Records
---
Amino acid sequence: MITNIPTYDDFEKVSKECLIQALELFFRIYSSYKEYNDENIYEEVPLNEIWEHNKPTLRTSVILLHQGIETYMKSVIVKNSPYLLLEQKRAEWPTLPESKDVDYASMYTFAGENLLHTFCAVSSDKLTSDKVKFIETIRQNRNKAIHGAGNILSDPKIIIQDILRAYTYFFGKDHWFNDIRKWNQSNPLFGYYDWGFESTLSYKFLDFLEITIGIKQLQKYFSFDISGRRYLCPTCLYEISSKDDQLLSKWAFLIPNTPTSNKIFCINCDFESEIERVHCKIENCKGNVIDMSGICLTCGEKQLS
Ligand SMILES: [Zn+2]
Ligand SMILES: [Zn+2]
């Protein structure tokens, strides 16, 4: 008998983990650079020099991205039948009553072209030629990264976009960010300092993506419209300032995006807040979105009556 047959969920979970880790590798490099918080250092050592130095990590990310995609294809195939993945001749399968038990993991499974063809055959989604071309490009990029050929590692922007594109293609918009938050919150150390404060820190991930790929690209992976004017979020602001930290990032947007709207939604904490439409009294601030405690969500200053 063939034992320990994997399930669809096993593969899907590993696929998501590979893609999240591929992105996390970039985020960690960026975060440790940001920790210096010193304009002189940033002038002398621009971010692209940091990416250049970290090419071995970027290479790992490309391999993880490819692995995540292969594992996703396997999950779809396994959903139909785990036997479709087996490469060995059927006559050699240990399935007759007298055969010895063989662990599924010790058998050969399809990879590369055979995997892609089987995936296309069983996929219930309408597979566009764009999607198939994308999968093939990633396979070639992974080969280039391993062989040290081509220049795939010299543009982190492309790799980051490819990871987000893969996640969105397979699991839908927004899922990558929700899953990253869930992943961080499942860390056994999460919450020991302060649950609310630590949950809010995911804004740093959004900042990192804005710096590396830009808002226009980032929009492709969010269902919420993030092209409008941006405001500080009262909920995030409260959490961050409760620990004497300063929040400068604006990830909240008016809903609906109209001059009379009195609600904002934050894509970082996923909360809606009520706001007032009054002109900010701070000099040179043109803001007119004030939270219920009197803080201007444009400049972050408290309105003094
Ligand atoms: Zn928020
Ligand atoms: Zn203001």
---
Amino acid sequence: MMILYSGTTCPFSQRCRFVLFEKGMDFEIRDVDLFNKPDDISVMNPLGQVPILVERDLTLYESNIINEYIDERFPHPQLMPADPVQRARVRLVLLNLERDLFIHVQTLENRQEKNEKVREKARNALRDNLTLFAPQFTKTKFMLGEDFSMADVAIAPLLWRLTHYGIELPKQAAPIMKYAERIFARPAYIEALTPSEKVMRR
Ligand SMILES: N[C@@H](CCC(=O)N[C@@H](CS)C(=O)NCC(=O)O)C(=O)O
């Protein structure tokens, strides 16, 4: 059985919880207290971060790598395209989400980062980059077309946390929030939320 070591407020862990619930197979989620991190976390992941997935002798970290593995082990519903060309394109999208958005999420999640100027810069970058993305969400139901995919999984935890992070999107970014509601309505999305995440957005 797969075991996921997960942070109860960690957006990266939320991605993996979301995929596990989408697949509806047997798994165990172990909550990790990031304020009092157990020693074995750094043994399993040299970066000392969650999420971490353990299955028999396999130990994986990095949310997108974990999610691709889960997707390949349990192909239904398939979250990465079957076609290698499309799959390569999704990987590029995932990489760019990390570069353009989640690098700033890391800043906001970093409890050691107390410099308010640095935090404000991260909030502004997230607001501006999401606003640039917005027009693309008027055309299709999900990020890459009509089907829900790994790209939607990857961005959802950020969209859920906008108010929590103190980010207000301008009016022209409204299509993003309509798109977000389509993800938030998925049963697996709701099931995967921890109690601490549920109260981040009312
Ligand atoms: N790139 C990693 C980021 C994971 C990450 O930043 N996790 C944070 C929690 S959200 C963490 O474990 N931080 C270690 C700590 O707080 O000590 C991924 O996608 O899994």
